[in-house]
Amino acid sequence: MIANVQHTPSRLLTEREAATMLGVSRKSLQNARYKIPVCKKTGEPRPSPLAEIPVIQFGRNVRFEESAIVRFIEAHRTTTGKGE
Asked: Which of 2, 24, 43, 67 is the most exposed place for a label (fewest CB within 10 A)?
């Protein structure tokens, strides 16, 4: 018997839509997935924080869940100034 599990998926965004929402270029999102820069001093890998965002890929199509983008933004939000 299969359990009736309800999952309300969030809207799937294209790379362009996700990049716009994050305020970065589409190429930055692509580089975060495929290229891991190395620290010049230590030689340690230093992945981009953008690499934390999960992707859904089917064939050549890459999509980002809108809710994952919102969670990423919330997790990396900083406050500056007084009064907050």
From this structure: 2
